[in-house]
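Quick question about two entries, pasted in order.
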Amino acid sequence: MERITIGLKSLKIGDIESDGGMGLSLAAVGNTFESTAILSQEEGETTDFFVEETDDPVESLSVKGATTLEWAILDMTPDTLVKVMGGTVSGTGDQAVWSGPADIPEIEQSIELISKKNIKYEITRARIQARLDVNFSKKEAGLVRIKAKVLTPTKEGEAPIRISKVVS
């Protein structure tokens, strides 16, 4: 039977395991804004090596393209902003204030996505970068746009990305 991905049931992130494996304690960081979650792989690059004696390459070397996940959330609570953008939180409850970082933080997390058709995508290690995209309009919502670049896991034999069927 085909495995078809339609829609998004959940998107969770969490700390990578201490051994470099897929994180086991993952949680949602706000609700995903409609139609913003996109997992894509760039086209790779191929370099051909030629010699004078023939028109065909004698060797060809291919490198795969980067894989990225992009999505946006509505949640501007200080704890959520720290999780995806770094910085600090001072105060608590309604008095909590997020202060952005002076430099771009190095945030690495594991990511799990589950589609409405129960197809699970697991990204063992990804570098998270986020930015504010706020248009003060009656017809648009302020968003936190998040981009995650898939990185090679530090755990030996661990795949960068896995796709499986959720079996209940």
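Here is the second entry:
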Amino acid sequence: MRKILFLLLIMAVAASAKAIITTLDAPDTNISGLAWGNGSLWAMDALTDYVYEINPETGAVISSFYFSHVTTIVPTGLAYSETNNMVLCGGWYGTSGYVFKYSPSGDYLGMVDMCGG
């Protein structure tokens, strides 16, 4: 009975799984964040501190900008705000988390301390 139940569970998961449509080469060596926004795929590299705007159909880099910050921030995440039309780069400095705001062209728009410090 357990084997049949397990087999049915596997079949249900397989039936609901989505197919891989395409794969793209990463624009850099240590991607630590991905986001979707403004019709593009966005990627952030934790070693080079670059943010890339990527054509989702071809994988070609459309544009890039340097994730500049004053202190030693470890880049850990990325988001795109369609409402505010901005790229949000997350990072950690010690035990404090920060979100750095950029325009899609890479203009620095400020930061938010997520830990209230």
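Reply: Confidence is low (pLDDT under 50) at residues 1-9. The CA atoms of residues 80 and 87 lie 5 Å apart. Hope that helps.
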